[in-house]
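Second opinion, please. Please look over this fold, written as tokens:

===
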Amino acid sequence: MALCRYCAHMGTNEKQIGKEWQAIDLDHLSASQLLQTPASWIFKYVALSKDERREMVVGERAAIGSSVHTAVQAVLCHGQDMNESIDAAITAFDFHDADEDCVLRDKFRTCIPAMVENGVELLADANFGGAIDEERILLWLDGVNVPLLGFVDLVQPETMFCEMKTKAPRKTKLLKSGEQGWSKATLPKKPEHNHLCQSAIYQKALNVTPSICYIAEHDCEMFTPFNCDELKADSINDALEDIRQKALIRQNLLRVSNDPKVLASITDPDWKHAFQWRMEPEFLRKAKELWTQK
């Protein structure tokens, strides 16, 4: 595992996990943690235990992403047969514990073969055949006394890495026949900010060219510093600083208190947020109890 030059200058003492993080039993942060709102993060990582977090149900979009990623990696990185990889992806999707929407599950299952084929074709053309999959990285940011941990989808050492992002169809209104209508997944015209932030972490850890590949049933789109400004050095550095600030905010909150009730009293839960509170009713009830002031 390579540590980036960004953190190589840090002294040994700065690489000790801080007591505030140890107090809530966290030995690392991740991009997905930091891209949550502070309130959502407080609930999941301060109020809930590790075992409770594992009980939270994920949606079908996460499930299809995981299945497609694994299949593309199997073909590109391990030389597995395309059809075998697709069959394995469908089986993994079928047995995934996602349980949010049975209509999405039935639809997404049919999308997997084309998504895997599209992803393999584009990424093979981009020279990711024989790449390393799930490369583990660890990155310390200035002033943050807990490391960021991540696993990079595809890495060609000393050359380029790629993060894969899947885009699945979306529901539209019901048809006259009573069947569910669907719209094609929309591929972005530039990298989404959250994905840019994640890639900024990986770029600094690996010190190679970043790329992001969006995979849909009907098409793929790949972004690199050669075709979009967002992945150039200045933008990458801005995104990394955004992530650093988010980590510092959490660190400062924990220095006030590691009591989730105290932290809830000084943060806005923003219950109307588009997706941060999309969770099972039991967990949502616990969250609202936490933010109920006496």
